[in-house]
Design goal:
Elements: H1 3-59, H2 62-95
């Protein structure tokens, strides 16, 4: 490498440096814009979800439906437990010769 080669390399590097910085700045700006759009989308979806939750819990007799479902489930569980108890009691009475 001669002095001229070093000189031209140095000039080329100095010319490319502002281009690299401009490119990096542009990429950073695009990333910032993308981040802002994603946050806006997230905020909008969160707001819509909260509205939907409020609508379901207040406007559509949500709690009444939930209570009805749980009451029916409790009835089924109680009936299954009662049937199990009567079957077990019948088997025990038969095994030991007692009557109900």
């Amino acid at each position: 490498p001669t002095v001229a080669d070093d000189f031209f390399r140095m000039i080329l590097q100095k010319q490319q440096l502002p281009q690299k910085r401009a490119m990096e700045d542009e990429v950073a700006e695009q990333m910032e814009e993308l981040s802002d759009r994603l946050w806006q989308l997230t905020d909008r979806r969160r707001f819509e979800s909260v509205e939907e939750r409020v609508r379901l819990m207040t406007g559509s007799s949500f709690w009444e439906k939930q209570a009805d479902v749980f009451t029916k489930l409790a009835e089924r569980l109680q009936a299954a437990e009662y049937a199990r108890f009567t079957t077990a009691a019948s088997l025990l009475f038969e095994a030991f010769g007692c009557e109900l």
